[in-house]
């Protein structure tokens, strides 16, 4: 409940502090006295946007502070989820600075407007004539039925499973798109991979093949060079080996004479050994050298395949071709993996559908059972409010779609008079009828759910006399279960309140300010008498006012 309200420097209000009870409170005042300012201040506390026009003194900040008793609202989880300090007595403060910036606090912790708006839904419901149009909203009609059906656990379960269903559906759509994109390239990628695999590439074979190709392609020239080299090395009379042997023999004769000669002898000996080894290697290479046109053709074909693949893939080495080969192979494997993932997700989706359908069916049955209960109670209340022939009909149809609160689509049909056909509520009900229907709905909901503090802003517009009495009785009855405020121009309703506040204007010098005052019993008599007869209060009006209050 709203236990106190403090307003500083807002619109026509310089300073206002007021405490409230948990019962039925009345707020009255002349048109333009400031009732809308009071609601505007509460709107800021609830998270509505503000601007500099809200400041009475543009040089000073505006501060609005509301204190709520929330111990019965079970809001601990909300506070924990939003990382706020929970207090049974929770204080919401809104500040508007001269710079135009706005700040909001819950129990002195800064919050953004979204968090404040979410919290306010649990605390305060300002119900104006404009909000009566909510009755025409299908989502609100479903909320009413759900309150009567009292199946909040089912709705929570449904919404959790719906979130999972949507998550899986999004993931499935994403993977389908990936698979489709890959599938478009799959045939080409498969062709490229097969081409690379057929080439049977090895990372270091290009250099080896190029070497083999050069040998086979120049076999005659190589053979001629090797034979000439062997001839020069091994000629019996003038060959290099023979000459080196003679040099070695000559140096051997003098090697014992000095270390220098010995060193030269050893060097020539080493050279002779090395050259003899070279000669043997030349001979071996000459023997291995074979003119093999067939092998030359095979090596050339393999090299041309490699060069062609390098040109196609715009690379310069087999190592790079092998990287591309692995990448293509991964893409083809990925398509297969995606198909497995799609199958798995489709199985999950089918399971979710079964669960959602089961829960939605239970919700539908509960709503169908709630309809006659709700219709009976509304018609009983409307009979008291001067609508004895009002009839309601709910059409609940299960769709194939998973909607936020089930699979039901609801239409509320209404007939105000005997002999008239049912029509959509929003099309056939007048403004006054809508106000009375909404009051009946709120009165019923007060018995089924913990509604927050409710402020009825001139919901009684268009009614008078005995109907006004009945509306007052209904609101007073609601106040036994919740805190109720009524902003009204009707004395019949004003007299029903446990407390009566008056909004009025006063002048101080060149300034006009709005004030809110809790009326005493005598002041209430005067106020209600004035509501009955105007400024010139007659004795009969005073007596009538006393009668209403008694």
UniProtKB/TrEMBL annotation:
Keyword DNA repair among record annotations: yes
One Pfam match: SMC_N
Gene Ontology terms: biological process: DNA recombination; DNA repair; SOS response
CDD domains the UniProt entry points to: ABC_RecN
Signal peptide feature range: none
Alphabetical list of SUPFAM superfamilies matching this protein: P-loop containing nucleoside triphosphate hydrolases (SSF52540)
Gene Ontology molecular functions: ATP binding
The protein's role, per its UniProt record: May be involved in recombinational repair of damaged DNA.
Similarity comment text for this entry: Belongs to the RecN family.
Protein name, entry field: DNA repair protein RecN
Organism: Flavobacterium swingsii
